[in-house]
Amino acid sequence: MNDPFSTRIRRYIPWADYRALEASQATDSLVGRSYIDTDGIKDRIAILANSESSVGFVYFGERQWLEARLYSNSDISYSSWAASELKTTVFRDGFARTTDSVMGMCWKAHTDDLTLFWSPPQLSCAIRLQDVEVLVLGKEDTLPLLEASRVFDILHDLPYYLRSASSNYSNYGDVVLDALILSPQQSRWEMCLANEYGSFGAAIFDGQELVGFT
User: Fold this and answer.
1) pLDDT given for residue 170 in this prediction
2) pLDDT digits over 27-43, tens only?
3) Cα separations (Å) of 39 from 27, 35, 44?
4) Is residue 1's pLDDT more than 60?
5) CA Rg, the chain, in Å?
């Protein structure tokens, strides 16, 4: 099975430590660089692979992206690679342009293959994954690649976000993740939740931090 989120490699790391590792790896990330030579790619892959083997920390999909560049001898961007992974591996039919009855014009996709998502026992919570639907709001004719990479990164760390929101919904019964909603060019996104009676609220994140509820 294709493993876009490196589920076989990752180990649980407390959120504060995880964020520190993330900040450290971001310093020398090749994502967004206008020019990357082959030696630089190989050196960066070695650094990322060492982090994975030593502490079980995976910096999003950067290593897999760089390996894809080497394998295909192409200059594919991280955003394009992430969009391709979402289309071919994560979402059954990719993103479809649609008009949602509530959110208006958007790009929508969903998956029910929960084996794709890393879910360590230390992050078990009251909110369950069932059928993850993702909506990227906006009127663009094509899905913005930047938003595709944001979706990939959010799904990569989804168990942490579920865990941070779960304590606020202990009185709502059997709660499932209903949808993730992203607005273009904004760091804020929503995790919409539902129970047997339907959708009832959302946890709001600014980047990687939980900032409120509706």
Assistant:
1) 66
2) 999 999 988 999 999 99
3) 18, 12, 9
4) no
5) 17
- Is 191 in contact with 177 (CB distance < 8 Å)? yes
For 200-204, the CB contacts below 8 A with 24+ separation are: 200/172, 201/169, 203/161, 203/164, 203/165, 203/168
Average pLDDT over residues 58-76: 94
pLDDT at res. 43: 97
Beta bridge pairs of residue 175: 127
Confidence (pLDDT) at 132 = 87
Tokens linked to 144: 């913005």
String of DSSP letters for the chain: ---TT-TTT-----HHHHHHHHHHHHHT--TT-S---HHHHHHHHHHHHHHHHHH----TTHHHHHHHHHHHT----HHHHHHHHIIIIISTT--EEEEETTTEEEEEEEE--GGGS---GGG--SEEEEEEEEEEES--SS--HHHHHHHHHHHHTHHHHHHHHHGGGTTSSSEEEEEEEE-TT-SEEEEEEEETTEEEEEEEEETTEEEEE-
Tell me whether residue 189 is exposed, middle or buried, using C-beta atoms within 10 angstroms of its C-beta: 0 to 12, 13 to 18, 19 or more: buried
Measure the CA–CA gap between 57 and 92, rounded to whole angstroms. 27
- The residue among 42 and 176 whose pLDDT is bigger is 42
